[in-house]
Structure formats: C-alpha cells, structure tokens
TrEMBL record:
Gene3D superfamilies: 1.10.3730.20. It comes from Klenkia taihuensis. Residues 295-332 are annotated as: Disordered. It is a multi-pass membrane protein. This is O-acetylserine/cysteine efflux transporter. It comes from the Bacteria. Its main location: membrane. InterPro entries: AA-Vitamin_Transporters, EamA_dom, EmrE-like. GO terms for cellular component: membrane. The lineage of its organism: Bacteria, Bacillati, Actinomycetota, Actinomycetes, Geodermatophilales. Keywords: Membrane, Transmembrane, Transmembrane helix. Residues 7-130, 145-285 form the EamA domain.
Length: 332
C-alpha cells in the first residue's frame, strides 16, 4: 500500500470507530434486526433507482452483501442489544482482520510476508491486552455477546474476500449495490423474532431527545459508516491485497473506545491507551513492510519491462541493418 492508501485506511478507521457510538444511540430506539433492515433500505431504494450497476459478477455482490451487510451487522447489533459494551464491541469485531488474513491465505492463496505476520501478531497482542484489561475492570465480559461479535467479525471477513475477488472498476457502486442484499432477509428476521408490534412501537417518540439521537445515529451509519467508510474500504480492497488492508481495521477499536469514553462516559484508562498504541504500531509495521515490498516488485517489473523494450529495440535495429545490407547487395 502506498502512503495515500494508508491515510485513507486510517480515515475509514475513524469513521467506523465513531460508528459504534451511532449504533448505540440508534439501538436506544429501534430493535436490532429491524435497525439493520432500515439502515440498508435507506440506501437500497435510491441505489436501485439512481446508481448504475457495479459491473462485477452478481455472485460477488451477493457475497459482499451477505457477509458484510447481513452477517456482520446481524450479529453485531444483536450483541450490542444484549449487553455488549460499545467500546468492547469495536474491539472484538476487529477479529475480522485475522479472519481475513487466514481466509485469504487458505481460499485465495494470498502470500503473507513475515513482516505482515509480525505486524498482525503485534496488533492482536494489543487487542488482546485491551480485552484482558476490560475483562478485569468489568469483572469479565459475558460470553454470549462476545461470541456474537466474533461471528460478526467472521461475516466481515467473508465480505472482504468477496470485495477482493470482485475487483470492482467502480468500488462505490459495489458498496451501494451491496446494500440491496440485506433489507429483505433482515426484515424477515425482524418480523419473525421482534414482531410487528415492537417494530411499530419503535417509531413512537421520535421527537424526544432519545428519538432524535437515534435518527442522527442512523443517518451517520448510512452516510458516513456505509457510503463513505465502506466505499473507501471497497476501493482499498480492490487495489491492494486483503492481507495489507485488513490490519487497518484494528485501528477501529482505538477510536471506538476513545469515543465511547468521551461521548457515552464508558471508562478508559492509561493502560488501554498504551495497548491501543501497540495496535497502531502493529498496523504500521505490517503496512509499511507491504508497501516497501510492493514498491520493490513494481521497480522489478518496470526494470524488466525496460529491458524487454531495449531488447526489442536492439532487434529492430539489427533487422534494419540486415535489411539495408540486403538492399545494398541487391543493387550491386
């Protein structure tokens, strides 16, 4: 990855870190499954009417929508609704990064360099340190919310692989058309599990402070979390190896935990900040190594191309000389 792509990946991490606070606010008003359906329906309708098709095989659109849109947010929203703390959710969901690297190696045969592996290991150590510290402070996280969030991370990883395979010429179009997949299955799940009565009650009180904050949080998740964040992420995935992009998601909990502390009053500490710095360090180690390796590969390709061009030019000169000699001999 080049410097511009690394900065864009960091911007995505900020957008997604704040997204957890927005989700928390929305879940104060809406039931989780219906909230997922509503989130993507607000994107799906204008997408079908106004956005050109993404120009990739539909299996990758479906795979991206099921993995990133349905599985990730079904499990994440459910986990947060049943008690997963906002900051801790932003941490555990980043299990998508090692899931992506492992699945990319196993299914796509992507090569992971030693430096990338070291960077991921360091970042995972930082994430683990934050998790252990949170468990000690909170007296131990409930197992079910953690497992649900891990399932969301696996769904995100599957969506990453579909995005990588799609190699969309217009990544934002792919992101928007992905939003067409989740609304109907999530609405069906909501009607079966939450019921029409609970859905109807969620629209009462929208003029209250809680309701307005919920609507604002929903707008953030749609416009910033999905359109901006996911659009940039799809762009990065389309032009870089999955194993280079995925580790940047480990920066999300640093933002998420800080935002939860500042905006929701969730406690943080110097220890968590130190572990978060380790996460940042791991991402930098893995990404800078991959950027240098990619630069060296590009230089080798350019050098080989130049040598091939020189060889072709030399052959043309030799052919021209031979033709001139033949012409001279014929005149004699």
């Amino acid at each position: 990855m080049n410097t511009r792509d690394r900065l864009l990946a960091c911007l995505v991490a900020v957008c997604w870190g704040l997204n957890f606070v927005a989700i928390h606010l929305s879940l104060e008003q809406f039931p989780p499954f219906f909230l997922v359906a509503l989130r993507f329906a607000l994107l799906a309708v204008p997408t079908v009417l106004l956005v050109p098709r993404p120009g990739v095989p539909w299996r990758w659109v479906l795979g991206y929508g099921v993995g990133f849109g349905v599985l990730q947010f079904l499990f994440l929203y459910l986990a947060m609704a049943v008690g997963m703390p906002t900051g801790l959710a932003s941490l555990v969901l980043q299990s998508s990064a090692p899931f992506t690297v492992l699945l990319a190696g196993a299914l796509l045969r992507e090569r992971v360099t030693g430096r990338q592996a070291l960077g991921v290991a360091v970042a995972i150590a930082g994430l683990g340190g934050i998790a252990v510290h949170r468990a000690d402070v909170d007296g131990g996280a409930l197992l079910l919310p953690v497992l649900l969030t891990l399932c969301g991370g696996l769904g995100w990883a599957l969506g990453n692989l579909a995005t990588r395979q799609a190699r969309a010429p217009h990544p934002l179009r792919l992101t928007l058309w992905m939003s067409v997949v989740p609304p109907l299955p999530m609405l069906a799940v909501s009607l079966l599990v939450e019921g029409p009565a609970q859905i109807g009650r969620s629209f009462t009180g929208l003029g209250t402070a809680t309701g307005l904050l919920a609507v604002g949080g929903l707008a953030y998740t749609v416009l910033v979390g999905t359109v901006l964040g996911s659009g940039l992420w799809a762009t990065l995935m389309s032009r870089n190896p999955s194993s280079s992009v995925a580790p940047f998601s480990m920066l999300v909990p640093v933002v998420g935990i800080g935002a939860a502390w500042l905006l929701l009053g969730e406690a943080t500490s110097a220890a968590e900040l130190a572990w978060g710095a380790l996460v940042v360090g791991g991402v930098l180690v893995g990404s800078t190594g991959s950027a240098r390796a990619a630069h060296r590969r590009q230089l080798r390709r350019d050098r080989a191309g130049q040598e091939a061009a020189d060889d072709r030019g030399q052959h043309r000169d030799q052919d021209d000389e031979a033709a001139a000699d033949l012409a001279g001999a014929q005149r004699l």
